[in-house]
UniProtKB/TrEMBL annotation:
InterPro entries per the UniProt record, alphabetical: UCP027386_ABC_sbc_TM0202 (IPR027024)
Record's protein name: NitT/TauT family transport system substrate-binding protein
UniProt cross-references to Gene3D superfamilies, sorted A to Z: Periplasmic binding protein-like II
Superkingdom of this protein's organism: Bacteria
Organism per entry: Afipia massiliensis
UniProt xrefs under Pfam families: NMT1_2
């Protein structure tokens, strides 16, 4: 029997239901062939996007230029990006906001065991660095400065992609390489398989960053969402997407082997490499507002010499989708 109390309760529940829309076409989650994208692959495999997506898939973008073009054109609507790129596009009025941070930092200097002890010890060495003037390079240069070094104190060999940097290291053309995960772990395992040399995570850049800036993490990358996607699924849909990724990251950490198998086809790496790399990837799915203090520090440090890196200024409150 429907009495007044049950009517009020039912009515309240009805009006409190999230207003989640659905995408008009299958939703593609884009990300680099780097550790945060493992979370995307897991979320899709587990069907966590079904409440708001008519279908879903994960695709890897290969270069920052490809990613920027996809966001600028509207062809990519949910993309894992370096956090400074999200700030830059938002400040330029391109309708891109940051929903979350998906790693506390996954950047390492890899070198033959015992040859590199800290940033200062890189002086006079040749170091491979991928993606000139993008996030890894920008952070590395700030860490050099904090150690009292100038980029001219080392010989930086820039490469177009992390695999190219790995090849420079494996071939012995450089003394060390600045790599993200899973490329850093992949280089170590590859050297072991080929009996070339023993490589190691010689410098944990996250720890160096903390000492240099006082910030607990490097909020290096997160999920950027466009106004186009928000218009389709609504603000509650963006919350549902966040919750799906929160569930997915728990599954990744609980069963790295299974998660690695899901991501391997798009990464173009053996699942064993991806599985091992998760340990070093500091994966999280933290709402952007929760990570705001660390993001602000990162943006301040990166923009000190060139504010254009973040689009000229610290992003305002509208930048934070969640």
């Amino acid at each position: 029997m429907l009495n007044r109390r049950t009517f009020v309760t039912a009515s309240t529940a009805m009006f409190a239901c999230p207003r989640i829309g659905r995408t008009a076409e299958p939703l593609t989650l884009w990300g680099p062939p780097a550790a945060p994208s493992i979370i995307l692959a897991q979320a899709i495999a587990d069907g966590l996007l079904k409440p708001f997506a008519s279908g879903a898939s994960f695709k890897a973008w290969k270069t920052p230029d490809e990613m920027r073009a996809g966001l600028s054109s509207g062809n990519m609507t949910a993309v894992v990006v370096p956090s400074n790129v999200a700030a830059n596009l938002y400040n330029r009025g391109l309708g891109v906001r940051l929903a979350n941070v998906m790693t506390r930092g996954l950047l390492y200097v890899v070198a033959p065991s015992g040859t590199v002890t800290d940033i200062a010890s890189l002086k006079g060495m040749r170091v491979a660095v991928p993606f000139r003037n993008d996030m890894p390079d920008l952070i590395f240069r700030r860490l050099l400065a904090a150690a009292g070094l100038h980029p001219s104190d080392i010989a930086i060999e820039y490469s177009g992609t992390p695999p190219e940097a790995v090849q420079l290291l494996i071939s012995g053309r450089v003394n060390a390489a600045l790599l993200t995960e899973p490329a850093s772990t992949g280089s170590i395992m590859r050297a072991k398989w080929t009996a070339w040399k023993n490589l190691e995570h010689a410098i944990d850049c996250q720890k160096v960053w903390t000492r240099a800036t006082g910030s607990a993490t490097i909020p290096q990358a997160g999920l950027a969402v466009t106004d186009k996607l928000t218009a389709q699924i609504g603000a509650d849909g963006i919350v549902a997407l966040q919750q799906a990724l929160e569930t997915a990251v728990t599954a990744v950490i609980k069963d790295p082997s299974a998660a690695a198998g899901l991501a391997a086809p798009e990464f173009g790496l053996p699942a064993t490499v991806i599985e091992r790399s998760i340990e070093y990837s500091n994966l999280v799915v933290a709402r952007a507002t929760t990570a705001r203090a660390d993001l602000t520090t990162l943006f301040d440090v990166l923009a000190k010499e060139d504010p254009r890196i973040i689009g000229g200024k610290q992003p305002d409150n509208g930048f934070f989708a969640l």
